[in-house]
Predict the structure.
Amino acid sequence: MSRLITATFFVGLLALKVIISWVYTIIYNLYFHPLSRFPGPKHAAASHIAYSWWFLGGSQPYKVLDLHRKYGPVVRVAPNELSFNSAQSWKDIYGFRQGHKPFVKSEFYDGGSFAARGVHSIVSERDPAVHGQMRRLLAHAFSNTSLLEQEELVAKTVDRLVQVVWEQGANSGASINIGKAYEMMAFDIIGDLAFGETFQALGNKNPHPWIEITLGALTQGALADTMKRFPGMAKVVKWVLSSKIAELTDGTKRNEDMAIDLLNRRISRRTRRRDFMTRILEHRDLEKKQTSDLELAAHASDFVLAGSETTSTVLACMTFYLLKNPHIMAQLQNEIRSTFDEYSAISDISTRPLRYLNAVCLEAMRMYAPLPFSLPRLVPEGGGSVDGHLLPEGMVVSTSPVGASLDPANFSEPFTFKPKRWLTESPKDVLEASQPFSLGARGCLGKSLGWMEMRTTLAKILWTFDMEFADPVPDWHGDSRMYTLWSKPQLHVRVKPVRTPPFVSKAR
Ligand code: HEM
C-alpha cells in the first residue's frame, strides 16, 4: 500500500513538473520572448501546436494567408518563427544583400534523402560555402548553351505527351486525366536529363516505383517537421508508428539504391547525348573529382524532385484557369495558332516572345505558387533585418509564397485569374511579391528549363487541341492541400484536335 502511495506521489510530482514547465514556457513565449512584440494569434505564439496542426492538416498556406490578411505583412506563426508577405521580405530573406550576412536554410532541410548515407545534396546542404561549391559545378548543366543542347530531349517527351493525349482522347472523346499526364511528362523529362533514361511514365497505367515512393516520402515533410518541433513526443510517435516509419525508411533506401544504379549506368555509358550529366561529368573531371558518385546520385535525385512536381503543377493550374476563363483561353489560342503555322516551329526560342503566353504562366504561378511551402531561413549570427524589422539571431523567418501572392495588399482581386496584370502596369499589383522561383544563392537552378517546359508544352497542346472540362470539375483552391508540395485536385478534360502534328499519322 505504501509503495502504491509512493509511486502515485512520484508520478504526480512528475506530472506537476511537466505542467509547471509548460506553463513557464507558455508565459515566457507570450510575454518575454524576443518575438513577443510581433502580431499574431496567441495560440501560435504560445507553442508549436498550432503550426504543426496546420501543416499536418494540409491547410498551412491558406492559414498563413488568413493571418497576413488579419495582422499585416509580418505575423508570428510559431514561438520562434515569423512569416512575412511583402515584396521587400523576399529580397531581404533570400536575396543577395551587400554588407549583410546571408539567412541560411533552417534545420527543416536536415535529414532528407541520402542524409543517412552521410551525403548532402544541392537542396539539403545548408552551409553556404559547401553549397556554393556544389552549385558552381552543377550550374554547368543549366547554362544557356546546355539548355539549347537539352531542348531536343525535352521536345521529344513533350511530343510524346501530345501523342498520348491524342491516342487517349482525340477520336473517342474520352475523358483524360491531363493533370496526371503533365506530371508523368515532367518526371520523364527530368529522369531523362538527370539519369540518362526516362521513367517511361507517360502513357503507362502504373507509375514507376521511383516516382511513387518519392512523392509518398515528400508528403511526409509535415510529420518530420512536427517531430523536430516536439523532440520529446517524437520518441513516442516513432514507437507508435514504427512500422510505418520503417516502411518509409525502406522506401527511401530503395529509391536511393535505384538512383545510384541509374547514375552508375549513365556514367559508364560513354555517350554524346546532351543531358545534365554530360556537362557535370566533364567539369567534375576537370575539377579533380571533388564530387563523389554518391553525391552526384543525391543531386540527380534532387533534380527530379525539384523539377517535376513544380513544372507539372503550373501546367495543371494553367489548364484549369484557362478552361474556367474561355475568353482568356481564346486569346491565348489565337496568339499561339496565329504565330505558328507548323507544329515543328514551336520551340523554346520561338515561344519566348509570346507576351500573352508568358503572362498566363506568370499569373498561374502567382495564383498557385508551385512550391507553396514557406522556405524557412535562420536570422544570421549577430541579428539581421527583414522589411525594416530588426531580428535577433537564430529566429526562423520566411516569406509565405501563398500569403504574398494572394493577399489583396499585394494584388487586386487576388483570386481572379488576370494575365493582363503582367502586361500593364498597375499600382494595385505589386508584381515582385510573387517569386515562384525564389531568389538569390538558393533560388531555382532550373528556372530556364522550367520556363522552356511550361511554354513549349502549353503551346504544343493548345496548337493541337481544343479542350473542355470533363466531370468532375474541381474547386482548385478548395480541393488543394499542402504537404510540402501541393496535393492538388485531379483535372479531367476532353480534347478535340484542330490541327495534326507531324508525328501523329505515323503513330496511329
Ligand atoms: C515551374 C517550375 C519550377 C519552380 C516554380 C521552381 C521553384 C523552385 C524554388 C522555389 C526553389 C527554392 C527551394 C528552396 O529554397 O528550398 C527551387 C530550387 C531548385 N530548383 Fe526549381 N523550380 C522549378 C523547376 C525546376 C526545374 C525544371 C529544375 C531542374 C532540375 C529545378 C531545379 C532546382 C534546384 C536544383 C534547386 C535547388 C537550388 C539550390 O539550392 O541551389 N527546378 N526551385
